[in-house]
Write a structure and sequence with these properties.
3 domains; 15 helices; alpha/beta; 5-stranded parallel beta sheet; 61% helix; Zinc Finger, Delta Prime, domain 3
């Protein structure tokens, strides 16, 4: 085997793919420890002044090279980055500084890391569009299934992603989504027992996120598909992973409010304009914009008003007290609201 590359004075390990970031960090820290460094010293950029980080890096080590790991390094201000960049002009040869972050480091510090050490990144490009981020998540779950020794049937990466992830609009949400998908991949491979992972396995083992299931209902309603709408509604109310009517109502009201806001924008509004009008980012904003473009004018406002009225019905309406169980009346009120939105869709 060729000899391992010499350790660099600094490494920047970043990205939303937290499992890969953690594995890369573990490999690096293990290697440094094997070369005589002992346990890594771990600091949090949000809690430790940058001067203390530098002092820790400059301290003498007794036993070889040691690692100083700074978590949350993207919380460093530009001035903090300048201080660390200054340290890297003459770094302590006994210290390997490891900067771990979700997003990008301050620009001057990033340039110094690139010049002095190595930058490692796992995740989509910083300026990736919502569809590109979803595509990256689908590729991520495919890779995680393969890493655990499994195989996915065609189309299952998208289905797993759709059932698991609602919002991946910012770095934190995308990181959480990647971690959730990694866990689902490991679970599915164990369940499949060497067989290709098919739709039945995904539906049995991957509970749909309540938000994702609400989007299934909104898709059916905006398409005017009554049969599909009530099939989804029945699954939400009676399936193995029930969603409370109040959760459905809240999600639908926010979604239709966003559609209404987009429908009031001029044609061809940019993603930034959609975000400003709706307060949403990523997939929720994209979904609202896509549906607003194909729906008749006024539908979003009418559906939002009906869902807002449903909120009152669920709280104090007489329908909410019907039935023999506490949820009977709530589900009945929700079904009536869905019927009204379908009639509104047919009339517009």
């Amino acid at each position: 085997m060729p000899p391992a590359e010499s350790l660099r004075p600094v490494y920047g390990i970043s990205g939303e793919d937290r499992p890969k970031v953690e594995r890369a960090l573990a490999r690096l820290v293990t290697r440094i420890a094997a070369e005589g460094g002992g346990e890594a010293e771990r600091l949090d950029a949000a809690e430790v002044p940058v001067e203390d980080v530098v002092a820790t890096c400059q301290a003498l080590a007794f036993g070889g090279t040691r690692a100083v790991v700074v978590e949350g390094a993207d919380a460093l201000k530009a001035a903090d980055g300048d201080v660390l960049a200054g340290y890297l002009e003459d770094p302590n040869p006994q210290t390997v500084l490891v900067l771990v972050s979700l997003g990008a480091l301050p620009q001057r510090l990033q340039n110094a890391v690139k010049a002095t050490g190595q930058l490692l990144h796992w995740g989509p490009p910083a300026k990736a569009r919502p569809r590109e981020r979803r595509a990256w998540l689908e590729e991520h779950v495919s890779q995680e299934v393969a890493r655990h020794g499994g195989t996915l049937a065609r189309g299952m990466a998208r289905r797993i992603t759709d059932r698991t992830v609602v919002d991946a609009g910012d770095a934190a949400a995308l990181s959480a989504a990647a971690l959730a998908l990694s866990l689902e991949a490991e679970k599915l491979v164990a369940y499949a027992g060497g067989e290709a992972i098919e739709r039945d396995a995904v539906d049995a083992m991957v509970p749909a996120h309540p938000g994702a299931r609400v989007y299934e209902l909104s898709d059916a309603l905006t398409a005017g598909d009554g049969a599909r709408s009530f099939a989804v509604l029945h699954d939400l109310s009676h399936g193995g992973d029930r969603v409370a009517p109040q959760v459905v109502q809240g999600g639908m009201m926010r979604h239709f409010q966003a559609i209404a806001a987009v429908q009031e924008l001029p044609p061809g509004a940019s993603a930034d304009e959609v975000t400003e009008a709706t307060g949403l980012r990523g997939f929720p904003a994209q979904k609202a914009a896509e549906q607003a473009r194909v729906l008749p004018a006024g539908f979003g406002r009418g559906a939002f008003v009906r869902m807002a009225r449903l909120e009152l019905d669920l709280r104090v309406g007489t329908e909410a007290r019907l039935g023999t169980t506490p949820d009977d009346g709530l589900r009945f009120a929700l079904e009536r609201a869905v019927s009204d939105v379908l009639r509104l869709r047919a009339a517009t």
